[in-house]
Amino acid sequence: MVSSDCTSFGGAITPIRLTLTHSRSYIEQLKHHLPVFSEISSSSEQIAGSEDLLTEIFLRLPPKSLLCFQCVSKHWLSLISNTHFRRLHTRRNATSSASTVGVFLCRHPNYDFLALNEERISEMGRIYGRLSDSRGSKVVCNINSCNGLICVGFKSDDAKTDFYIYNLTTGHHRFIPVPESMVVKSMNLAFDPKISDDYYVVCVWFSVSENRLRFSVYSSGSGIWRHSNGHCNKVDLCSYGGVFWKGAVHWFSQTSPFLCLQVDTCVFKSMPSTNIPEGQWYRNIEYFGESGGHLHLIEIHKPQDIEFDVLELKSDYSCWFVKYRVNLEFLTNLYPIMVNQEVYPPEDYNFPYAFSTLCFLTDEENRARVLISLPGKIVVFDMHNGMVKELADIQPDSFRNFIGGARYDCFDAYKYVETLAFV
To answer: Where's the F-box domain (predicted)?
Structure first.
């Protein structure tokens, strides 16, 4: 038996007797389990003392956890910050479905961050905090992301724009020098950590002297711009919607053939376009992006279509084919506001349904999810189990601007991936 006295608060001293009693049976049980505790302690010491075992464990952890674990000890800091480890972690986790943690929703002047594992939009204040050393009083005017890196353009009062590449996970950034002769239309990132530590910045710019679009590629490895011999006269080229896939950046057009630029050679190569529906003069492309190692495209052929196909480009670039069929009619029962007659009378608005596909995601098991923006809501539809989950509420600026002000489209959305990649 062990006894002890202690003092209470408030100035009065009151003896409190604490009694701990150990029975013989309890001590026998403790002795019985001591070898197990000893084995656990011994195993922990072996793991802590083995860099190979620690490395294997750390390679399976997400980047944000690793950045926190750097503070545990000098040994862990040295191991996690090691250049070889960071490269190995980046390459091993490059294709993980769990790596996509959220989506940037970028519509000037609002820049929000939508976390896929939360039920509300988190303010991008923390993102701006990362950018404050470069941003100052400048305005964000250009955003593009690829496999964890993000390209951000900052426009100053004199209309000059500075471009930086950021890794928002680590907080590191790099300035990208742009020749003054290049009137930038868009910057597109190309980064494949499975292939190389280097990344490319593909610039679509307007040549005033030639009155046409030109294409140039900046390499982070060499720090040099290379200019393509090819050019483009397509006024409707969606240059801001460039998508990196299989070593090339791809662009779609609503009326003209699609474009594809191989970034390492700075040479155009052919790719198939989708057919323009009979009786129409343009394609109504709702989504264009990469997921799960594939290039996907969604077209809404008629304004009243609430059933659509998700097309996938064959890896040999031979053709587009139907990968998934989606019918969102059931959503109109859950969210009647997406039926436009609830907001505008039919004679004032020709589109019966108000929705847009923000992002299309697939994982290693080929399970697909669609992020859908409705008036006032963002939801995720799991095509594997048919479940719908609300992710965010979006408030419109005014009732009259409800459709436009409380809904995003895919060209406002950029995937955010956690990575330890260098910039």
So the answer is: 49-89
How far is the C-alpha of 303 from the C-alpha of 88, rounded, in Å? 47
Q: Distances from the Cα of 353 to the Cαs of 277, 279, 342, 420, in angstroms?
A: 20, 21, 10, 41
Provide the CA 164 distance to its chain's centre, in angstroms: 17
Structure tokens at 315: 């890896």
Q: pLDDT by residue (tens digit) across 98-114?
A: 567 788 887 666 667 78
182 C-beta neighbours (distance < 10 Å), count: 16
d(CA 283, CA 302): 10
State the Cα–Cα distance between residues 407 and 423, nearest whole angstrom. 33
Residue 118, pLDDT score: 63
Q: What is the pLDDT of residues 221-242, one digit of tens each?
A: 999 999 998 777 665 666 777 8
| One-letter amino acid of 260 | C
Residue from 129, 110, 251 nearest 190 by CA: 251
User: Distance between terminal CA atoms of the chain?
Assistant: 63
pLDDT score, position 23: 40
The per-residue pLDDT for 233 is: 67
285, β-bridge pairs = 299
Q: What is the pTM of this model?
A: 0.80
**Contact (Cβ atoms closer than 8 angstroms) between residue 315 and residue 324:** no
CB 38 within 8 A of CB 68: no
Low-confidence ranges of the chain (pLDDT < 50): 1-27, 29-31, 33-34, 36-40, 123-126, 342-349, 398-402
Helix and strand totals (H; E) in the chain: 8, 26
| C-alpha closest to that of 165 among 180, 143, 185 | 143
Can you read off the two tokens belonging to residue 384? Answer: 């594997």
What's the CA dihedral at 67, 68, 73, 76 to 10 degrees? -40
Q: What is the bridge-based pairing of β-strands 285-291 and 294-299?
A: antiparallel
> Among 357, 362, 309, 311, which Cα is nearest to 331's?
357
